[in-house]
Design brief:
This protein is an alpha+beta fold and 89 residues long. The protein contains three helices and five strands; from the N terminus they run βαβααβββ.
Length: 89
């Protein structure tokens, strides 16, 4: 099962332990992860269900390609990292 980790910046707003979730895509794993915490979903996805502009998701060290549907595949044992992207100059 994929393991999902949230960076300290997100955990500061929503205390989230490391989560083990099922699913074969990033979307399926994340939906299971926040099934009991809709506010956590709000921090990661916008009102249309897309990844927020300043949030990035990595699977096994690679940034996902599909920010709209989150359809990137995950395999058992994959590590999914959800983090706030830094911007500015």
């Amino acid at each position: 099962m994929p393991v999902i980790r949230f960076t300290a910046n997100l955990v500061r707003h929503r205390p989230v332990p490391e989560i083990t979730a099922g699913g074969t895509s990033v979307r399926e794993a994340l939906e299971e992860a926040w099934a009991g915490d809709p506010l956590l979903r709000y921090y990661v996805l916008d009102e249309q269900g897309r990844l927020r502009k300043h949030v990035n998701v990595f699977v096994d060290g690679e940034m996902i390609a599909d920010r709209l549907r989150l359809s990137d595949p995950v395999v058992p044992g994959a590590e999914i990292y959800v983090l706030q992207a830094l911007s500015g100059g």
